[in-house]
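Office hours follow-up: a student asked to see two folded examples consecutively, so here they are.
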Amino acid sequence: MRALVLAAGMGERLRPLTDVTPKPMLELGGHTLIHYPLTMLRRGGITEVAINVHHLASVIQDGLGDGSQLGLRITYAPEPVLLGTGGPLNGLHDFLAGDTFVMANSDTILDLDLRAMIAFHRAHAAVATIALFNPANLDYYSRLEIDAAQRLRRMRLLMRRDPLQYDDYPSNLDDAVAATLSPFMYCGVIVAEPAVLDLVPPKPPWSLMPGLFAPMVARAQPVFGYVHTGYFRTMDDLKSYDALKAEFASSPSPKII
């Protein structure tokens, strides 16, 4: 199996730090942010990883090298122009097409058992399985809604927060069905089959959820949610970064490295 780690973003909400250091290379708990998802992948048995890079790309490439120090083989996918969160799949079709593959965010820290998620994915004959989490502030995120069998039945992509407004996939889900669903947020990891690559929009830039996975859910394709109940943190801005640094400094981090 192979994986793609998304690391090309500008990290605008973390300026001025990201003016000189790309977000994936910011330090937390004695490691760079990207070290955490890379370690998760290695623990899950994945050693061949592509990383898309754009903003301060050389800092990432120089810091990680060929990946051998992490037990990985890293292939870099430079983006002279940003391709969106989904666009890297266009250029990496051949790299990912041979087997089930994984996508992971470079700024998410979680103790996900990737082997268990892959086993769940295969047991349910899913074309894609999306890691989900139940946060205290769900209204801050898009809502991914699963039924009792953990199949994704609706994605409510957040358009605005005040007032709350969503773009629903499908747009016409029966109210009685909707009432039975459980909402979660996406927590940064996706397992997918090569067939997904045949469904990507032909030309970047495009975004993963509205461009690919939400339309799949709307067409009732077998997309499932894998509910993660363990440790999960993501870093959105300077305030959350400071909070995470304080958390890691005050107490031992979970076994995520």
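And the second, which I mentioned at the end of office hours:
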Amino acid sequence: MLKIEKSIKEPVFKNKVYNILDFGAVADGKTMATASIKKAIETCSKNGGGMVLVPAGKFLSGPIHLESNVNLHVSEGAEILFSTNPQDFYPLVHTSFEGMELMNYSPLIYGKNKKNIAITGKGTLNGQASSANWWPWKGKTSEGSIYGWNPGDPSQLDKGNLPVLMDMAENNVPLEQRIFGNGHYLRPNFIEPFECENVLIKDVNIINAPFWIIHPLKSKNVIVDGVNIKSHGPNNDGCDPEYSQNVLIKNTTFNTGDDCIAIKAGRDAEGRRVGIMTENVIVRDCKMIDGHGGVVIGSEMSAGVKNVFVYNCFMDSPLLDRAIRLKTNTRRGGTVDGFYVKNLTVGQVKEAVLHITMNYAIYGDQKGNNIPTIKNIFLEDVKVKNGGKYAIFAEGLDQSKIQNITFKNVTIDKVAENFKLKNVENLKLINTTINNQKIEKP
């Protein structure tokens, strides 16, 4: 792990500053600054790179497209307010929605095939999503219409929207025919480096995201450091590395409407075709508050995930469902090999300390002939005050048992039930105490 972390270097930039005010931006929160920011970024990149400075003040913007060797620096006291008008996110770009590639609204901050890019500074990136815009497109949820959707309103689940994309991805329809955008209600990602190398996202505050928040896609050498994420909308995952390698997430606080960190690798047939495994992901010194899971793998993980390391993290909230979670099914398939957790402190979670399922179901029938594999899950030096319903919930398949789960030096002060296990092979409990009792066998 240390060798992997040492290999992930921060990008270095030329010592030259391009202030967006010098390119016509107005700090009134009302005048569109999209063109000014674009001109500053392009000028900076053409001149060999450096810092594009967003000074203190409020700036209204459409999507921001990064160029190589550019550090977008959002100063303390600065706030970029992203437009809530979908028309401002045209032209459509090559992007991804829930593990499926398509032409859709541009992510709020986007870079495609770039090297040495950064978003830094202690300012705020505000997606301005709410129950009045972006979030209602989620449609009906199990919680009801809590995101502003009402019966009869359009949503991503309507015929012609997400179901059509799912069929296209399953049947390998060419990208140029996967045209979405207006009328399809598929929300844009917030920050998406796509096929990028040497990426740094540092210190910024991120709030009110339309959809997934930080989404490194097919990228290498990515650092997320000291970021503060607070966004409670639908599918507001904090950080979703997908088809990516050598990703370091550190010193970051996640307070989200979905998984805090969800490690991905494509969805179903498309993920298997792409075939790029996500590997060498390090999560350290992070804090997880609200969310469906603290550190999660899946459910879009069909190309496989290998070597995930989590250490020195703290998780605590009555609205955090699970600490460590893995989710797949026989439609997703995929392999998880090597999930290492050490020095984890958990105050409270709602459902489980470790939750693994190969029967994850969403959007209807999720059964197929692609049998997943999950093996080598290690939790060491873990302290939990309240583990919710289960210390370990692990649900494998008759034809694919979950293999090699180890708890070592784990103490759970309170939990309703120690284990709920099905098709699990080789569960080891070493110096494990649950509800004040030393547990040696499940």
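Two things to take away from it. The longest strand covers residues 335-348. Residues 11-215 form a domain with the Pectate Lyase C-like fold (CATH 2.160.20.10).
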